[in-house]
Amino acid sequence: MSKEIERKFLVVNQSYKSIATSCDHIVQGYLSRNVDATVRVRLRNDKSFLTVKGRNHGIERDEWEYAIPLDDARSMLQRLVDGPVIDKQRYIVPYSGKVWEVDEFSSPDAGLVVAEVELSSVDEEFDIPPFIGEEVTGDPRYYNSMLGVKK
Amino acid sequence: MSKEIERKFLVVNQSYKSIATSCDHIVQGYLSRNVDATVRVRLRNDKSFLTVKGRNHGIERDEWEYAIPLDDARSMLQRLVDGPVIDKQRYIVPYSGKVWEVDEFSSPDAGLVVAEVELSSVDEEFDIPPFIGEEVTGDPRYYNSMLGVKK
């Protein structure tokens, strides 16, 4: 188990692109959107993963991730996924000693761009890059598991 | 992915015990009871597994199973499981060329005993052992994922 401590922000310009060190194609869906135990299937380029996450406690969350065969992940995405499949590009963006992940969604919320930074403690301080806008940490509207789900 | 084709029966006497070749202690719980994508965490003696199952189609069901570290499984059972944790003894019982699994539940439905046989096709014929009673294949009351869940 790892402990995930993350803060999430909206993105206001594309300045992350010029400093990004990589860009991955991610396709993912949810076997469970239960907030107490989210279960996600993800393709990331040519790898795939099954990930279990617990409930958010503030900005902390338990996470367990397992590599699984690509064919298994594709079958689950086709056959089992509850709700929309998410398709996004993830840019890895180093900035002032931290690594940001910037997700550009093409489905279901085409045009949405969100940035996350992983912290080592809940009160860790960090510099805000110039592409960062409003903070949306803990806002369920921006949970990947809730995107495109009918309310 | 494997395809699970199983028939399930109630058990009417203990004659399975004298022909059982092994008995395992199983503790399991569910991260998702969604009938379209059940996600189960199981400890089986000193091993543990994360298992995803699709919706039943008649007596067939898709299944994907991954071995996971024991500590991960224990944490998920303690922290994430939705509803009761199931505790049972599983006897492996060969009979007339087929292998039966007989589950004696100690929690949540103490005293319930159910037997399953895995088939290679939906219309495969097989001999009925003397401990077998009423067939309950497809009856949601006997889904492990539904035991002890408030209706």
TrEMBL record, chains A, B:
<dbReference type="InterPro" id="IPR023577">
    <property type="entry name" value="CYTH_domain"/>
</dbReference>
<feature type="active site" description="Proton acceptor">
    <location>
        <position position="30"/>
    </location>
</feature>
<dbReference type="Pfam" id="PF01928">
    <property type="entry name" value="CYTH"/>
</dbReference>
<feature type="domain" description="CYTH">
    <location>
        <begin position="2"/>
        <end position="149"/>
    </location>
</feature>
<dbReference type="InterPro" id="IPR033469">
    <property type="entry name" value="CYTH-like_dom_sf"/>
</dbReference>
<protein>
    <submittedName>
        <fullName>CYTH domain-containing protein</fullName>
    </submittedName>
</protein>
<dbReference type="InterPro" id="IPR012042">
    <property type="entry name" value="NeuTTM/CthTTM-like"/>
</dbReference>
